[in-house]
Amino acid sequence: MGGAEWAVKQGYGWEEDLERIEENGKMEGDASKVSSKAIERGMDQIGTLGSGNHYLEIQVVKPENIVDKEIAKRMGIFPNQVVVMFHCGSRGFGHQVATDYLNVFLEVMESKYGIKILDRELACAPFQSKEGQDYFTAMKCGINMSFANRQVILHRIRECFSKVMGQSAESMEMNCVYDVAHNTAKLEEHDVNGKRQQVLVHRKGATRAFGPGREEVPKIYRDIGQPVIIGGSMETGSYLLVGTEKGMKETFGSTAHGSGRTMSRTRARQLYRGDSLQRDMEKRGIYVRTTSFAGLAEEAGSAYKDIDEVIDAVHKAGISSKVCKFVPVGNVKG
């Protein structure tokens, strides 16, 4: 129910973190719409990355990779800085919420609402129906779970760096730049055919990228636009961008989610060996810790599109604007 706000109140973070999180780290969910099984699955996973394309990286800001020096400075980014970036979500909790409501929709979709589909995985219900509203409310709990999860991880990162470096996280200026959610559905106001309308924007494999002036953007960034984080592969790097006015007009304030895969996970495991990949990356100065070599093989850089080309595309299209690129030196796979 409380999201990152709950985590900070429990001592996992700083009060100022909340103003650097989408939705200030909390949406109005209703736990009564969530199954006990979802809660059981999620309870032990708070503060964990998970598998697949989820990661935690230690990265470096090379001077030549800062594109917009002024905005980078506003976000606390400077040349030769070490940054930490991580990508994860609501873990088994969110997955169970979706599974639960998939079954609910399958029961009522055709009999109650006359909706027929070819793929059971696309089960649905009208947004204003009881089932639709129950799911929308439960999904907000999933978003809160992801905010809490990432907030606890942020706290643990600060603890680890403080222990190793022998300094406080505050003295090392380990401030949160931004926490942006992926895979959400939100009611937002946008201009549609010249009229201001409330619409349900579903970003799956997409990132919110609101431009300057939107009240949803934290005050500290409102005049420059929302920070946008787009991950690449563990071999190539990731980007920090900012939302644009053009993006508000053309894409409901949305941009890419990541570089995107070029091959299936199965194909990647056939082509690459995780242990060989780990040794090769270490020779190039990228140290990797993983719980599974098979999982590591799935995430080989060649299994993904060129992140520079992807970012050039969204930048030239004007739907988000480059601030800087981060180059990995250490990677942890969940």
Mean pLDDT: 95
Model regions low in confidence, pLDDT < 50 over at least 5 residues: none
How is the main sheet built?
6 strands, mixed
* Overall domain count: 2
Tally of individual helices: 10
Assign the CATH superfamily of the largest domain. tRNA-splicing ligase RtcB
Regarding quaternary structure, what we see is: single chain
Structural overview:
Helices cover 36% and strands 20% of the residues. The chain has helices spanning 3-9, 36-43, 69-74, 91-113, 130-165, 245-250, 265-271, 274-283, 293-298, 307-317; strands at 55-60, 82-87, 182-192, 195-208, 227-230, 238-243, 254-256, 287-289, 320-333. Helix 2 (36-43) runs antiparallel to helix 4 and helix 4 (91-113) packs antiparallel against helix 5. The chain is globular and about 60 Å long.
Précis, in short:
By secondary structure, the chain is of the alpha+beta class.
Summarize this structure as a short list of keywords or feature phrases.
334 residues; alpha+beta; three-stranded antiparallel sheet; globular; tRNA-splicing ligase RtcB
How is this fold's topology laid out?
Layout: H1 3-9, H2 36-43, E1 55-60, H3 69-74, E2 82-87, H4 91-113, H5 130-165, E3 182-192, E4 195-208, E5 227-230, E6 238-243, H6 245-250, E7 254-256, H7 265-271, H8 274-283, E8 287-289, H9 293-298, H10 307-317, E9 320-333
Parallel strand pairs: 8-9
Antiparallel strand pairs: 1-2, 1-9, 3-4, 4-7, 5-6, 6-9
Helix pairs in contact: 1-5, 2-4, 4-5
